[in-house]
Design brief:
Helix content: 25-40%
Strand order of the largest sheet: 5-4-3-6-10
Number of domains: 3
Distance between the termini: 47 Å
Order of helices and strands: EEHHHHHHEHEHEHEHHEEEEHHHE
Radius of gyration: 22 Å
Oligomer: single chain
C-alpha cells in the first residue's frame, strides 16, 4: 500500500528511497489520511504484518492474506479522480516535494548510466503518477504515450504532469490505440523516435504499460542492464505461434471523429515477409539497447518489416523478436541481437 509521504527515507544498501518492509520505527512529517485505520499502520496492526518482500516474489500465503484483506476493505480504498491532478500539478515545486521525487541521482553509478523509458498510458492518472514517482531519477528520460481515445482533459492533465520535469515528456504523436493492432506498436515507436531526437544520453530503453509497477530499485536495474553488455533482453517465451496472425491480412479501422477503432479480420493472404525474414513470436515489452533502437528505426530492412506488419495481428509480439533473432536472421547483424537457438519458440518463415 503506497501512501503519500512528504518525507522519504534512504535505504543505504540500495541508495534508493523506498517504503520500509516490516515494523520499522520512523518519524513521518505528514501522511495523508493519517487518521484512517485502513491505511495507517499505527492504527491497524494488520498492515504491519504484511511483508513487501514476500509479496514481491508472489509468496502464496502472504498473497492470500493481502487479497483477503483488500477484498474485505476494498470500499475504503478510493483512487484520486483524474481531475484532481490538474490542480495538483499547478504548483510543480510543491507537488514534486510532497511526492518525494528525486532531485539528484542517488549514486554516481546511476548518474553515469541513464535509462530511457516508454510508458503507455490509457487510464488512471493516479496509477501513472505512482509509477512515474517510483522509477523517476533525474538522469533518466521518460516518454509517456497517452492513448488518443482519452478525454481531452485527461491528456491535458498528463501533459501538465510532464511539464513539471525537464526529462519527462508526452509523445509527439498520440495514436488511437486499438487492441492487438499496428497502432499498439507505433505508439512505442513514436516514443522511441522522440527519445532519439532529443539527443539525451541513455544506454538502454525499457517499454512498459502505465498499469505496471517495479519490484526493484533503479540501482538494481542499472546492475542488471550492465550485465547485458550491450545485448537486448527481448523475450521469446511462447511454445506455439498462430500463423494466421501474419499469414492473413488484419486491417485496423479508426474513426478519427469519434476516436474509436477496431480490427477487421480477413482470409486474404499476405505476401511473404520482406528479405526472407523468419518471423519470431515474442513479447511486446522488452529491454532494448540504444543501438538496437537506432537500428529498428533507421535500417531499411526494419522499416520494410514495419510496413509489412501494418496489416498483421498483434505485430508488437513479432516485430521486436524478429529483429532480435540472429539465429535465423543472421544477415540483419542487429546490435545486441541473440545468435543462439530459441529453445522456447516456434518460428514461421
Amino acid at each position: 500500500m503506497l501512501l503519500w509521504f512528504s518525507v522519504w527515507f534512504e535505504d543505504p544498501s540500495t541508495s534508493s528511497k523506498q517504503l520500509f518492509d516490516g515494523p520499522v520505527q520512523m518519524k513521518v512529517a505528514h501522511v495523508y489520511d493519517i487518521d484512517n485505520k485502513y491505511t495507517d499502520p499505527d492504527l491497524n496492526p494488520m498492515l504491519k504484518s504484511f511483508r513487501c518482500s514476500k509479496l514481491a516474489i508472489n509468496e502464496e500465503r502472504e498473497m492470500s492474506r493481502a487479497v483477503t484483506y483488500l477484498q474485505k476493505h476494498k470500499h475504503q480504498f478510493k483512487s484520486r479522480p483524474d481531475e484532481d491532478y490538474i490542480n495538483l500539478v499547478l504548483d510543480c515545486e510543491k507537488f514534486i516535494k510532497s511526492r518525494g521525487y528525486f532531485h539528484v541521482a542517488p549514486s554516481i553509478e546511476e548518474k553515469t548510466f541513464p535509462i530511457a523509458f516508454n510508458i503507455l498510458f490509457y487510464t488512471n492518472i493516479e496509477q501513472l503518477e505512482r509509477l512515474l514517482r517510483s522509477i523517476y531519477r533525474p538522469q533518466n528520460q521518460y516518454c509517456i504515450h497517452v492513448d488518443a481515445k482519452c478525454a481531452d482533459d485527461v491528456i491535458s492533465a498528463v501533459r501538465k504532469l510532464t511539464e513539471c520535469f525537464p526529462n519527462v515528456f508526452l509523445a509527439s504523436k498520440l495514436e488511437v490505440v486499438v487492441y492487438a493492432s499496428y497502432t499498439r506498436l507505433t505508439a512505442d515507436i513514436s516514443c522511441m523516435k522522440d527519445h532519439l531526437e532529443r539527443e539525451y544520453k541513455w544506454d538502454y530503453l525499457i517499454n512498459m504499460a502505465a498499469s505496471e509497477f517495479p519490484v526493484m530499485s533503479n540501482l538494481q536495474l542499472v546492475h542488471m542492464l550492465k550485465d547485458l553488455h550491450g545485448a537486448n533482453d527481448v523475450h521469446e517465451v511462447f511454445k506455439t505461434i498462430d500463423k494466421e496472425r501474419f499469414e492473413s491480412k488484419h486491417f485496423t479501422y479508426i474513426d478519427l471523429r469519434t476516436k474509436t477503432g477496431y480490427m477487421i479480420h480477413t482470409k486474404d493472404k499476405k505476401d511473404p515477409p520482406p528479405s526472407g525474414l523468419v518471423i519470431t513470436k515474442g513479447n511486446a515489452y522488452n529491454i532494448f539497447s540504444r543501438k538496437f533502437v537506432e537500428f529498428a528505426l533507421k535500417s531499411d530492412v526494419a522499416r520494410q518489416l514495419l510496413a509489412w506488419s501494418a496489416d498483421t495481428y498483434t505485430p508488437d509480439e513479432h516485430y521486436w523478436a524478429t529483429l532480435n533473432n540472429l539465429y535465423n536472421n543472421s544477415f540483419l547483424n542487429t546490435p545486441g541481437g541473440y545468435k543462439g537457438r530459441f529453445v522456447c519458440s516456434t518460428f514461421y518463415k
